[in-house]
Design brief:
Layout: H1 2-15, H2 18-31, H3 37-49, H4 54-67, H5 72-81, H6 85-97, H7 109-122, H8 132-143
Length: 150
């Protein structure tokens, strides 16, 4: 049954029918049991990442994150690639505050915090509604050791 949905969605993707494709992916997810969603979501996510409007991809990614929290790191990378830095920072903070998080890409929390700091320092005009000073101070306290000078 998922094969039919996958083939139809791939056909619609090739036809460049954006709204119809999105609706069809949604219908597939509603029709199939949750155990088969893992066959649909990767194709859906790959497709929405290719769309010109990143906000469609963001809303779909957020739905996917409710089902698969492990995709948050991919979501962060996508947000950075489309330069939606305030949302990327919020998601990096979620990861940094999650004690159970383990990176699929082998990144440490320190590396994620460094990328957060790079975003804040390189694109301050695009970072809105965040207390960047407290974010950086928190990371400095958490990820750096005090150096004792004798």
């Amino acid at each position: 049954m998922p094969r039919i949905w996958i083939d139809y969605c791939e056909f619609l993707i090739s036809q460049r029918l954006i709204t119809k494709t999105r609706h069809t992916f949604d219908k597939a997810l509603m029709s199939l049991p949750v155990t088969q969603h893992e066959l649909i979501w990767p194709i859906y996510i790959k497709w929405v990442e290719s769309l010109p409007n990143p906000y469609t991809a963001i809303s779909i990614y957020k739905r996917y994150l409710r089902l698969n929290e492990d995709a948050r790191e991919d979501f962060i990378d996508y947000l950075i690639s489309v330069k939606i830095f305030d949302e990327a920072i919020l998601n990096i903070i979620v990861v940094l505050n999650d004690d159970l998080f383990h990176s699929k890409k082998g990144r440490s929390k320190f590396e994620l915090w460094i990328s957060l700091c790079e975003i804040i320092s390189n694109f301050p005009e695009k970072v809105k509604n965040l207390d960047c000073e407290n974010i950086i101070r928190y990371g400095l306290n958490k990820y750096t050791d005090e150096v004792v000078i004798n």
